[in-house]
Amino acid sequence: MAPTSEHPEAAAHDATERSSAARVDHAASAVDGSAPTSSAGEPPESAAAEASPIPTSRRASSGPGGRVIALTGAASFLGRNLIGILEEDPRIARVVAIDIKPPDTGGSKLRMHTVDLTEPASEERVAEVLAAEQVDTLVHLCFLSSPTAATAWAHELESVGTMHLLHGARQASLRKLILWSQTILYGAHPTNPNFLTEKHPLRADPDERFFADKMAAERELNAFGAKAKGTTVTILRTAPILGPTVQNYLTRFLARRLVMTMLGFDPLWQFIHEVDAIAAFKLAIDSDFPGTFNIVGDGVLPLSTIVRLAGRTAVPVPHSAAGPLVSGLWAAHAAIAPPSFLRYLRYLCVADGEKAAQVMGFRPVYTTREALLDYTSAQRLRDVRLLQETPA
What we know:
Elements: H1 7-15, H2 20-27, E1 67-72, H3 77-87, E2 92-99, E3 110-114, H4 122-133, E4 137-140, H5 151-170, E5 176-182, H6 209-227, E6 232-238, E7 241-242, H7 249-255, E8 258-262, E9 268-269, E10 272-273, H8 274-286, E11 291-295, E12 301-302, H9 303-309, E13 313-317, H10 319-331, H11 354-360, H12 368-383
Parallel strand pairs: 1-2, 1-4, 2-3, 4-5, 5-6, 6-11, 7-10, 8-13
Antiparallel strand pairs: 9-12
Helix pairs in contact: 3-8, 4-5, 5-6
């Protein structure tokens, strides 16, 4: 996110945005010709439509009885929506949920296995589940979407839990392993280029547990991929996810009547619509794309514009006062995020999605602006109690 001087970049991107209606129509008949899910509130499978067909050699092969997909964090927002889509894919024989509670989108294909990745015994349990279910693809989604004050537990879940999962996966014959990561791990810095590619290092605050554990999980997965011959390893770094049903620190930040900003700074932000985020994972499940990919919406917006479009009032706070203020509120469990997130109110942290477009064929249906407006429409109904909150 950058100072006000970089706003022409936002205008240039917004000028190239295609109409939302045209892309929605295009998405409805896209990925592999599959129809959108009919379940209420579930995003369509085809949101990441490719303009040209994916080569047959890169498609994940199905066994005689169909493919078996396992997901950690199955009860999370991404997990339960992916399960709803996988249930309707005729190429999928079974969907294996690995979590401490079952998702509410499971159907006849779902096999639930209660596994707590924070427990040392989870390594053996994961190995047993993967072998017994004959899983060919494992999607690791068991990461927090918002910061928590329970940092010790978060470390056990994300960093140590990923190690337990990968140790168990080494004992199975996986074809593919997909991990969810986030573009905010690049960090917000005044020296950042306009768009960060996958070649840029992850420079988020290493002292902040929310960032450090996710960066450690990426390192663990890359080490696993270097040794696990024959297993396709994919990391999808999503921009902050926004939409009408998702809940995270970003949606809570924009849901407040008064939105804190930093005096003298107006950084550029980008989002990925919840539909597009889910579609990117489905695309990675369907075909083999080894490597790391930024999953972002087209276009960027200044924070001042985001606050205005959300119908909120910005409250500029001097940098010298913001740190102590947020520290005190976070300690009192009254803040949305810890003080380390204040950097994103000052500096640029915008990722380049060109690699995902060229290699995966990922084309987001929603722009950053459209993702914001879709969220805002639903939030206005929540503001007047006409729409029930959906748990994240």
